[in-house]
Design brief:
By secondary structure, this protein is α+β, with helices and mostly antiparallel strands. The protein is built from 13 helices and 21 strands. The longest helix is centred in the first third of the chain and has 17 residues. The protein is globular. It starts with a strand and ends with a strand.
């Protein structure tokens, strides 16, 4: 059983929600961030970039202190407010292809440490410490961890009950996504949600491994009820949209194209494809674009010692990227870039044709059952194995640690 609880969110007043909410600042170019900061005084990006007009940018703890100060300014100016009642928040995001509906609440750090909240990705200690210091200094978290859970009848009924009523927030963003948020502050409904999760044995991290690890690290330094939980977005696993992460490589480590292909053939079969765009469809297939041609790499059917090793990203890493292209650490090597599955393959083709990159590798999405199997076995997937939707807006609900 897992522990989930309501919390008193800091959130935008109703008429400012669409102006405050933003994508993760990491997804914006510098030019776009500047445009938004110059033209929207309410965007959450002002809180994350409190010194953007300053000639010299702050770093580390000083930057975090400015962020905290900016948050308080938004509250004092009446842009944000803190709820008086601990609540759950139903958040729905709808685009042309999918509708995602889940519950924003607070999950237990102890459940994470006890492996009831299961992970499938390795975290970097340096990033954990930086984000822990960020949480400790700012005292808030504005990006919920995406957690998936098995379907639950009682949760479905609560979601249906509220989504049939008027939402507290309702707005459409420029990418044609409709966002809605409902507040669950009735004690009866709160208890139904809490008790429903209390009957679920495990939940799975879909996105936000470093945020979980950082919250766990923080809880060791600050012993309080609020710091022993972290903000999360809980969604049924069959609602997740799991896409692939493709790879682009800048150079072939000194090999010619023919030499490179011959080296791949030592372990796997390669077939030239005449299509203008070729995406892998077979169970053990990766597609490759190089020198104006598409190839199908059919991987060997050897027996693997773990589920993680049998996945396409692992096979690509261990048989091609590492031994042939000398890409040892994909998280830091500048020879490789990761492109999520929302980007058309024609764009990757153009990047190779232009000479910006030498080769592209196209992978298939990994099914949720395999991700859960990896997590249940305490295995780790390679970096950027999955791109999971929904991606939530920052600043709609803010979790106060103090």
């Amino acid at each position: 059983m897992v522990k989930v609880r309501p919390f008193k969110a800091i959130r935008p007043v109703r008429d400012k929600a669409n102006l405050v909410a933003s994508r993760s600042y990491l997804t914006y170019s510098e030019e776009t961030i500047k445009e938004k900061l110059d033209n929207n005084p309410y965007t959450f990006l002002h809180i994350i970039n409190p010194d953007y007009n300053n000639k010299y940018k702050s770093l580390g703890i000083h930057k975090f202190q400015l962020i905290k100060k900016k948050l308080n300014q938004f509250i004092n100016d009446g842009i944000l407010k803190k709820d008086n009642i601990a609540s759950y928040y139903i958040y729905q995001k709808q685009n042309q292809l999918n509708t995602f509906t889940g519950i924003i609440g607070a999950s237990s750090v102890k459940d994470y440490l006890d492996n009831k909240i299961k992970k499938h990705e390795q975290t970097l200690t340096k990033r954990e410490k930086i984000f822990c210091e960020y949480l400790k200094t700012t005292n808030f978290n504005a990006d919920p961890v995406l957690l998936s859970h098995e379907p639950n009848k009682n949760i479905k009924e609560i979601l249906k009950k509220y989504t049939n009523t008027r939402a507290e927030y309702e707005f459409t963003t420029t990418n044609k996504s409709l966002h809605k948020l409902w507040i669950v502050d009735k004690l009866k409904d709160i208890n139904i949600i809490t008790n429903a999760f209390n009957k679920i044995d495990n939940i799975y991290i879909a996105d936000g491994h470093h945020r979980c690890a950082s919250s766990a690290l923080l809880s060791k330094n600050i012993n309080s009820v609020l710091s022993s939980y972290f903000m999360c977005y809980l969604i049924e696993e069959d609602q997740l949209n799991i896409l692939n992460f493709n790879r682009l490589v800048k150079h072939l480590n000194g090999f010619t194209v023919d030499q490179f292909i011959k080296k791949i053939k030592k372990k796997h079969s390669i077939f030239h494809k005449k299509q203008s765009i070729y995406s892998p469809t077979l169970k053990n297939e990766i597609s490759m674009y190089i020198d104006g041609k598409w190839y199908s790499i059919v991987t060997s059917k050897k027996r693997y010692t773990s589920t993680s090793e049998s996945l396409d990203p692992s096979i690509l890493s261990k048989d091609i990227l590492n031994p042939i292209l000398n890409i040892i650490d994909e998280r830091t090597d500048k020879n490789i870039s990761f492109i999520d599955g929302t980007i058309p393959l024609s764009t990757l083709k153009e990047k190779v044709d232009s000479g910006e990159y030498r080769v592209a590798f196209i992978l298939k999405p990994i099914h949720i059952d395999l991700i859960k199997k990896v997590a249940d076995k305490n295995e780790i997937m390679p970096p950027k194995s999955t791109y999971v939707e929904p991606k939530l807006r920052s600043g709609l609900t803010i979790y106060s640690i103090k």
